Amino acid sequence: MSEQTSTEEFVRVCTLDELPQVGAACAEINGKRVCIARDSAGDVHAIDDTCSHANVSLSEGDIDGHTIECWLHGSRFDLRSGEPTGLPATEPVAVYPVKIDGDDVYVAVPN
Ligand code: FES
């Protein structure tokens, strides 16, 4: 039961095996599209899937280190902070807490 308490706001999204070795996938959590990305160091991040520049799925972009690059106009976002690190985007995207429990990936997205 203590496990449930510690994960109560986290939703199980996928297993680590279901993620690309370095890359991203999209999941819908609490009605929001979330980009689940594994960076070059093997760390898993969860950010809002919609690019802050236009309505484009970031999970279809490329990972470079701990950065994801939007495929449409090349904006780059730091997966750890959601901050834009390359134009044309100037607004950050939301970042959500990730928890790994064994092989399972949990993400907490506010309702
Ligand atoms: S839509 Fe992502 S950079 Fe333009």
Automatic annotation (TrEMBL):
MF annotations from Gene Ontology: 2 iron, 2 sulfur cluster binding; metal ion binding; monooxygenase activity; oxidoreductase activity, acting on paired donors, with incorporation or reduction of molecular oxygen
Matches recorded under Pfam families: Rieske (PF00355)
Keywords: 2Fe-2S, Iron, Iron-sulfur, Metal-binding
Entry-linked CDD domains: Rieske_RO_ferredoxin
The keyword DNA-binding is annotated on this UniProt entry: no
Signal peptide positions on this chain: none
PROSITE patterns referenced in this protein's UniProt entry, alphabetically: RIESKE
Keyword Acyltransferase: no
InterPro entries: Rieske_2Fe-2S, Rieske_2Fe-2S_sf
Residues of the Rieske domain: 11-107
Taxonomy, superkingdom: Bacteria
Name this polypeptide is given: Non-heme iron oxygenase ferredoxin subunit
Source organism (scientific name): Leekyejoonella antrihumi
Classification of source organism: Bacteria, Bacillati, Actinomycetota, Actinomycetes, Micrococcales
